[in-house]
Amino acid sequence: MAFLPSPTLVRSRAGRHRRFHHRHPFHLRALRLGALPPAPPPAPSNHPGKRVVIAGAGLAGLSCAKYLAEAGHVPLVLESRDVLGGKVAAWRDADGDWYETGLHVFFGAYPNTLQLFRELGIEDRLQWKEHSMIFNMRARPGEYSRFDFPGFLPAPLNGIVAILGNNEMLSWEEKLRFAAGLLPAIIKGPAYVEECDRYTWTEWLRLHKIPERVNEEVFIAMSKALNFINPDEISASVVLVALNRFLQEKNGSKMAFLDGAPPERLCAPLAEAIQAAGGAVRTGQRVAEIVLHEHDDSVQELRLASGERLTADAYVSAVPVDVFKLLMPSRWRQMHDFFARMDHLQGVPVINVHLWFDRKLTDIDHLLFSRSPLLSVYADMSNTCRGYADAQRSMLELVFAPAKDWIRRSDEDIVEATMRELQTLFPQHFGAAAQHKAQLRKYHVVKTPRSVYKTTKGLQPFRPTQHTPIGNFFLAGDYTQQMYLASMEGAVLSGKLAAQAVCDAVERGDLPLPRAGETANPDLTVKV
To answer: GO cellular-component terms in the record (predicted)?
Structure first.
């Protein structure tokens, strides 16, 4: 297609170009009818284990390390902060309450993440909710409209019934015109979905003459939930991929919450699995520089902020794209289009607000789409999460989005604006007419100036593969090529694909041999 390159051209030292990579089999072209299987993990290696240093202990870095260790290699994961998780990190306050980087929801259409939970033996930590999507009613404060997916029907019939059964948000004419607009995506399949990256979602709706009210009623909320931005920014491909999975998989849109804080309930078991297989995880270890060999572009070592230097057989960057661009050696950017093209990618700002109240606000045990101009999704975590349970008092976790105009504002300003929005969401508890006034006990605001990569239109050509032009250097992260885009599933899958890329390089004998007098560090297994 016009907006996704065929093999990428990479500039060589002499200024010539050579072909480097093709689309990955788990890119958007992998979309198909029915549930998608997880990507296979790397097979155990027939070669002596290689030492691999991985920068970043988010889901991408940890999953990469797990699969490398289980294939017989020796990974060392370095995390700059004192907590594991990256974009799913969380912290405990003086009262023992957790506050998180985001409101993390797991979907039935996350095959690699769900497989990871099974491999770790922690499936019971996912608290599955009833198969519904619940929206606040804009014109009726305090009321909700539901899309209920009947469990006795297969996909896509359960999704069709859910849409047709909701008569409060869209008229029959709007539903029919939207369905007609989706026909090309259904008939033409993945190639069409890729081509739609040239449009924003709003442009796509207008192209198909779908009423603007469909955007206003449903897709402003959905776009903000998918990437924290509005439909006039988000790529149409992103929304179409989500719709494809939600409609093609019976439980694709079914949601689960983790039963506690991600660092304890997900990342700790991952770190334990890595260590049990011979790898290691170290926190408080920031990579300050990627040091190259003098006579070629391969990595010689990593220099840490502490001054420590680490040498390995292979290196993986699993840090966010904005962090990697700061670490990227200037020689790579100058000599390889593969790296220079990443300048088009950047993270989106995200604000997560936590509010503790003196009373119960709702008994709804589910994710809620606020349809607020300032907020995206929210949940009463005292209902949805066993680890945060409180039968008497609510703790709301709300995503403030889009956040670009608020990321530099004070926490007090953000909380004040959020409390004003609660007058519409919970009029019985907030505002002049409230009959059962609730008092705010405390709050935490977590700002991430650059979070998951911003999925605006036309960016698919600039997303790199996990293998790079540098023989001993690899990439992981949701911004790399994989079909689940900017999500936890995308991060987990990218880590697995990066592990596979390293293993493939080992099997082919592609990793550079150590120079004379240079060996990989004899012991990378330093514990946290």
So the answer is: membrane
Cis peptide before 402 (omega within 30 of 0): yes
E-assigned strands of 371-439?
375-380, 395-400
Q: Find the domain containing 276 and state its range.
A: 9-87+262-346+454-508
- Whether omega before 156 lies within 30 degrees of 0, making that bond cis, reads yes
Residue 287 assigned as binding residue: yes
**Exposure on the CB side of residue 16, measured as CA atoms within 13 A:** 3
Please tell me whether residues 312 and 233 are part of one structural domain.
Answer: no
| pLDDT tens digits, one per residue of 276-298 | 999 999 999 999 999 999 989 99
287 φ, ψ (degrees, to nearest 5): -75, 125
Please, which residues bridge with residue 258 across strands? Answer: 126
**How far is the C-alpha of 34 from the C-alpha of 154, rounded, in Å?**
10
Residue 201 lies in a domain: yes
Number of domains in the chain: 2
Co-location of 215 and 297 in the same domain: no
Amino acid letter at 70?
E
- pLDDT tens digits, residue range 447-489? 999 999 999 999 999 999 999 999 999 999 999 999 998 999 9
Instruction: Please check whether residue 417 lies inside any domain of the structure.
Output: no
CATH number of the domain that residue 325 is part of = 3.50.50.60
What is the rounded average pLDDT of the residues 223-242?
A: 96
Q: How many Cα atoms occupy the beta-carbon half-sphere of 466 within 13 Å?
A: 31
